[in-house]
Amino acid sequence: MIRGESREDQQRAILDKIKDYVFSGDYKIVDDGKIRDVRYGDIAVLCRNGDFCRSLKELADKEGVHAFLHGDVEIMSTREGKLVLAWLRYVNNESDIRGKAAILADMGASLSYIDSVLGRDGGEGVMPRNLSDHRLALLRKRRRPNDLITSIFEFYGLSNDITQAVTTVLSRAYSGSLITISDLIRLIEDDIKNKTKYNVDALVSPDAVTIQTAHSSKGLEFPIVIVAGLDSGSFPSTRTDPESLYFDEEFGVRCKKEYYSKTDGGVLHERIISSWRDKLMCLCKENDRSEERRLLFVAMSRAKQYLCLTAGDKPSTFFDHFGDGETFEYTDRGHLLEYEESMSRPPEIPAYSKRRRNVSVHELMEAQDSAFADGTDEIPGKGADYGTAVHEAAYLMSRGIVPKEEYPELEEVRRILDSLEGSEIRTEIRCALPVADVTLRGIIDVVAEFDDRIEIHDYKTDDTDLNLPLYKLQLSIYAHAAMGARGKKAVCFVDYVSQKKSVRFEPLPMSDIEDSVLNL
Fold first, then answer.
1. What is the dihedral of CA 18, 19, 25, 29, to 10 degrees?
2. What's its EC (predicted)?
3. Which of 155, 166, 168, 430 is the most buried (most CB within 10 A)?
4. Closest by alpha carbon to 503, among 425, 421, 416, 435?
């Protein structure tokens, strides 16, 4: 049994005990009838909650003790998850105060400095140059979430089980390329609010300590088990149901919150506060620790040969119950024995083979001109939302549905659709064109297939022709994809529905498209 003067002391004591098991020579493992020395892989540290697991894993990395975090973890609530959230907010909106404040706070900036950067105290309100430059670099990767998130972690030199899990979860959520950065932000926020857990099982190495929660250890066995964090309020846990409304077998349906209002100087102040009635009821009720005792039994019974219990400066009743055992008071690392040890090495992971990247046509346009950095494929004079509304109405018209809203541009859309009589018309068609080591993907507004040709139409609500060169690149990609699929010649039309005119042109050669890909 080990006690520390603080949580950090307790965790350092755990790591020293692990080294004691491995390097002192005082402990042996019976394996298939044979006796051998202890390896890191023989040891498991079981914690009551994921937060203790994560902080212990971080300390283990610093101390050179190779360990893996196993089981389900609230990855978005970790430092790694919150850093991604902060940067996505900052990338999505340069003026986002929450994102910028979180980035600065993680760097250890003082409150006065943060207020100055945010312009709260009359300061310039300008982010440090290295952060603003990094934002611009990330902005170019907004259509490649895997690269974007990886770049965030590389900026901090982070590479661990959590970073891999966060990257995987967010990249999978992006599959289909329709989700936006705003959607990813909401996903992370919801996961933090709902305490969503994800599995972060890593590559298992025979030379790695297992760190996981006691809950996730059911059914497993280890030669050596350290049950950590037997602290007051932690194990047994005093946390209650996080929901405001809950059911108690003795007292029925209860509500933890209540409405509070107060008028001060003619101003009504309204708040939702904790219910004193519910708190009083909880104080009167005898605590039922049976479930926590069963969990402790599960954790302790995972040990096949050696068992160690640890606590901080305020040990729980569970720890005190076993107080007759030998307890080591951990106060000074200098008092510990020094062992001749070597730092464990992570398992060798083969290099990933190069894979073809999926790149949206909008991202390619963004690489050519930063004016398209918001993800739109046009620069409408009446705003992006207006352009989107016109496109949706045009789509309904092509399906024979009368739009609820009428826009001036729809008259030109009707003229274009009427001019395609005699062709097979398909709208909102997804397409893909392989170029070098990438696959360009996009959505064509209108594909009209005649007997001898294919016409590619794309509606634009721009007030000027300034972006015509980029639109020619966009439609040329669509045209080459259509020609490859249908085997017919293609002609392109940029339909300026606000200006009531169409620009007809032949697709650019593939060499021009290949050159544009080099800018990615």
1. 30
2. 3.6.4.12
3. 166
4. 416
pLDDT digits (tens, 9 = 90+) for 158-169: 887 788 888 888
SS3 328: strand
Domain tally for the chain? 4
Alpha-carbon distances, residue 489 vs 135, 242, 327, 469 (angstroms):
42, 63, 83, 21
Can you point out the beta strands (E) in 278-354?
A: 303-311, 328-330
Amino acid at 385: D
- Reported as a single tens digit per residue, the pLDDT across 244-281 is 777 777 777 878 888 888 888 777 878 888 888 878 87
pTM: 0.46
Same domain, 139 and 219: no
- Of 446, 472, 470, 461, the closest CA to residue 496 belongs to 461
In a shared domain, residues 304 and 387: no
367's enclosing H/E stretch is helix 361-368
Question: Does 452 map to a domain?
Answer: yes
482: domain range?
A: 361-517
Say if 171 falls within a structural domain. Answer: yes
Considering the domain boundaries, does residue 350 fall inside one?
no
Q: Which residues contact 85 (CB under 8 A, 6 or more apart)?
A: 76, 99, 102, 185, 188, 189, 192
CATH of the domain at 57: 3.40.50.300
Which tens digits make up the pLDDT trace of 356-408? 677 888 878 877 654 444 444 444 456 667 888 888 888 888 888 888 888 99
